Amino acid sequence: MQAKKQIKNLQSFLIDVAAKGFFHLLGANGLSKFFNFGSQLILAWIFVAEDLGRIKSMQSFLSVLVVLAGAGFNVSTLKLTSENRSIGEKKILMSRAFRYSIITGIIVYIGFALLSRQGVFTDDKQINALLWIVAIAIIPNVISEIYLSYFQALKKLKSYAYIQLITKIVAVIIVITLSYLHGLYGYVYALLASKILTIAAIFFYKKKYIDKGISEPVKSVDKPLKKHLRYAPYSMLANFSSILSTNLDILLMIFLNVAPELIGYYAFAKIFINILRLAASTVQQSTNPFFSSLADQPIKFLDRFKKYNRIMFITTFTGTIVLALVVPLFIKLLFSAYNDSIPFFLILITGWFFRSNTYLPASALFGLGKISINFFISLAGLLVSAAAMYAGYYISGAIGLAIGMAITGLFLFLANFVAMYYVKRKLCII
Asked: What is the CA radius of gyration of the chain?
């Protein structure tokens, strides 16, 4: 009987998420991640471990900077335009967020470029020579985040998926070609070209398919900045804490002057972690607007959350076991030069199993407007991550950083579990 109930729940879940474009997004995300994964492996073949470590170091800086530059306006756009408003109001709120984030993006870029040119962040001369160029990608990244949040809120997931897939394929070709021909500089310029290509594709789609369908007169919105600031600051701080925690291992390696070759082995191990993150991030993208729409229906909200959470746990657990068995063999057979990355991978994959199961609770809390809770969880995770990794490094060296990441994943998993229990008590639905 219990088995039949589980099968029925699974069927209900699959039908529900399919209607929201989940499988289009998962398929496109899967292909996109496949091409990205393949390109990372090819880059590992093109570059020596030291240069792969430099690439991962620059990527880590960029990931953190984009969150700061966006100032949370992408999240406030998603939240505000997911609510029951006219399409005209949604368009105004999105356009204002676009303007605000451009301003913050330019400020962050100028500040970071000046500091990086002075060698504030690392002693590595090659990274210092390229970092300020890589940081130019902040602006197109911020723009794409705003528009993709808007598409997400309008439930244009299929269109979002197609844009993501097409631009990723072209970008991978550009990155591999220029990296092979011109080394690190080729990689950097290819990265910028791919970001510009993504923006062009988004603008084209928005003008042809989104704006064209809006016949309703655009109405004014009272105090749009105030509305955005209701969500943006906490969102930015939460995302900043989360992304900094995610990249803290690489950033600590840079600041502690760990050998670039060792960073390269560690970075190679992290390439495979992205496979596990695919399903988790896709579910989060497809459920954010959905949970927002159910915020005033607590019983239905909880029922859907339980179903989604159960599937998420089963999927990530199965994925973790499979990857833990297959990836070490894959490395030994095809990338023996990176055998030293295997111990890093086995520890990191354990931590990411727990971290992947925080995506859905975070999405549910977001839908309920409990963004401040996400912030405090992320901040606590960052503090735990910093303490665990710093202590781990001085006790066990680089392997201690991976152990610190695993401890952080477990902490975040438990913190989100407690937060959801607290919220359900507040809603009087347990």
From this structure: 21
What pLDDT, on the 0 to 100 scale, is given for residue 40?
Answer: 79
For 297-353, give the DSSP string.
-HHHHHHHHHHHHHHHHHHHHHHHHHHHHHHHHHHHHH-GGGGGGHHHHHHHHHHHH
Q: Using the predicted structure, report yes or no on whether residue 187 has a pLDDT greater than 50.
A: yes
Cα 79 to Cα 38, 126, 227, 289, distances in angstroms = 34, 41, 10, 7
Pick left, alpha or beta for residue 71 (phi over 0 → left; psi -120 to 50 → alpha; otherwise beta): left
- Asked if residue 297 lies in contact with residue 327, where contact means CB atoms within 8 angstroms, the answer is no
Which tokens hold the place of 193?
A: 């070209």
Kindly state the helix (H) or strand (E) to which residue 357 belongs, with its residue range: none
Sign of the C-alpha dihedral computed for residues 88, 94, 96 and 99 taken in this order: negative
The DSSP line for 87-146 is HHHHHHHHHHHHHHHHHHHHHHHHHHHHHHHTT-S-S-HHHHHHHHHHGGGHHHHHHHHH
Instruction: Determine the average pLDDT of the residues in 381-409.
Output: 90
Buried b (16+ CB within 10 A) or exposed e, 66-92: bbbbbbbbbbbbbbbbbeebebbbbbb
The answer, yes or no, to whether residue 3 has pLDDT greater than 80, is no
The whole-number pLDDT of residue 286 equals 62
Quickly count helices (H) and strands (E) in the chain: 16, 0
Q: Is the pLDDT of residue 159 over 60?
A: yes
In this structure, are residues 171 and 31 in contact, taking their beta carbons and an 8 Å threshold? Answer: no
Choice between 374 and 161, residue whose per-residue pLDDT is larger: 374
Rounded to whole angstroms, how far apart are CA atoms 121 and 39? 27
Task: Name 17's Cβ contacts closer than 8 Å, sequence gap at least 6.
Answer: 23, 283, 286, 287, 308
pLDDT of residue 17: 47
For residues 138 and 3, the model is more confident at 138
Is 245 within 8 Å of 385 (Cβ atoms)?
Answer: yes
Query: Does residue 10 have a pLDDT over 50?
Result: no
107-122: per-residue pLDDT in tens? Answer: 999 999 999 888 888 8
Q: Do residues 163 and 205 make contact, with C-beta atoms less than 8 angstroms apart?
A: yes
Angle at 161 between CA 174 and CA 242, to 5 degrees: 85
